[in-house]
Amino acid sequence: MNGSFNRHGGLTLVPMPGFEDVANRVAEKVRAMATDKAEQNLHDTPVDIAYPQFGTRPSGEPYLRLGKEHIGGHDCIVITSGPGTWEMLGSLELLLRYLAARHASRITVFAAYFPLSRSDKDEGEYEFALPPLFVDLFRKAAAGSDVSLSRIVSVDLHSPQVVMSAPTGFITELSMIRRIVAMAIKDALAREERLVISYPDAGMMSRAGKAVSQVMDTLGICVPCICGIKARKSGTKVEIKEVYGPTEFIRDATVLCLDDEIATGGTNITTAALLKSEQFGAAKVIAAVTHGVLCGDASMKFLAPDCPVSSIYCSDTIPIMNRPELVQLVQSGRLRVVEWWRDLAWAVYHLHWDLSIRVVR
């Protein structure tokens, strides 16, 4: 398929600050796909990278420098991730406006961890759910005379409400949980540990159940699964009220707790303490999550000698290696990182050539 025509123009990656290394790896992978013996009948795909330069003037006002090179007439893919801080949200809106003004052929945002994922529902009478608002703002920022924001692609969304906050097909969800679970299970089996899989609630069981079944089928194993009843007191406070399922298998087992993210770590640690209590008697508790938000003093909590969570497996959808506060956690071996840039490269390639990006590899 070398030399095939693409109606969107050339492919350009536009990394937000902190994602330059990811963009470089993705570009190398996409360029090599057509000649990779492991891939079959793929298009020859040149890739450019445009590096936006963000800054702040002495007055405190922001600026962005981004020329038209590799932008005008190109299929531009922004690489970023949440959490949705003021800086991240404002910078993304500014960048989208520049891409539209520079006449990109198509604009897509790959926000691996959807910004404002945890703001998916109203919080009492004072706080609105924010994803619908910022989806509207992103779309308006990218609106030009001949271009608009094509879609936002994210990984393992916190809830279906996020997808429903946008027009049909505008937010596309990919999944990394299968890769993370596979690594955690293989490591446990290598240590000859007996496993139990734990879901925090029925929602997570529904979202991750298929991926877990695929891993079990591939490895030729059958692992008992338990599920919690989770009571959410607010957007930041969650409590596991009860555990149901074949709980008799927990005693002396390694329990692999699955979830979409770890933020402050409070819920994970509380749940692990419950599973290791006299009531259930787990020998070890491991957390396997997609997004390592790991904010506040989470790193110190998980490094504590008496922490009931033995280790964490997570992807780098939110960059891990460039965060100084997580260096000790990684070096200690308690945080195991599953890189996602290869999956990102595959999705970028398929998006560029108008193929399905939901293909499970």
What report would you give on this structure?
The protein has ten helices and 15 strands. It has two domains: 177 residues, Rossmann fold, CATH 3.40.50.2020; 162 residues, Rossmann fold (3-Layer(aba) Sandwich). The longest helix has 18 residues. Helix 1 packs across helix 10, helix 2 packs parallel to helix 3 and helix 5 crosses helix 6. It is of the alpha/beta class and 361 residues long.
**CATH structural architecture of the largest domain:** 3-Layer(aba) Sandwich
Global structural class: alpha/beta
For the termini, the CA-CA separation is: 21 Å
Order of adjacent strands in the largest pleated sheet: 11-10-9-12-13-14-15
H and E string: EHEEEEHEHEHEHEHEEEHEHEHEH
Question: At the third CATH level, what is the topology name of the largest domain?
Answer: Rossmann fold
Number of strands: 15
Based on Cα principal axes, name the global outline.
globular
Per DSSP, what share of the residues sits in E-state strands of 2 or more residues? 15-25%
Number of domains: 2
The CATH top-level class label of the largest domain = Alpha Beta
Q: How would the blueprint of this fold be written?
A:
Blueprint: E1 11-15, H1 20-32, E2 47-49, E3 53-56, E4 62-65, E5 75-80, H2 86-101, E6 106-111, H3 131-141, E7 149-155, H4 160-163, E8 171-174, H5 177-190, E9 195-199, H6 202-219, E10 225-232, E11 238-244, E12 254-262, H7 266-276, E13 284-292, H8 298-303, E14 311-315, H9 327-331, E15 335-338, H10 341-352
Parallel strand pairs: 1-2, 1-5, 5-6, 6-7, 7-8, 9-10, 9-12, 12-13, 13-14, 14-15
Antiparallel strand pairs: 3-4, 10-11
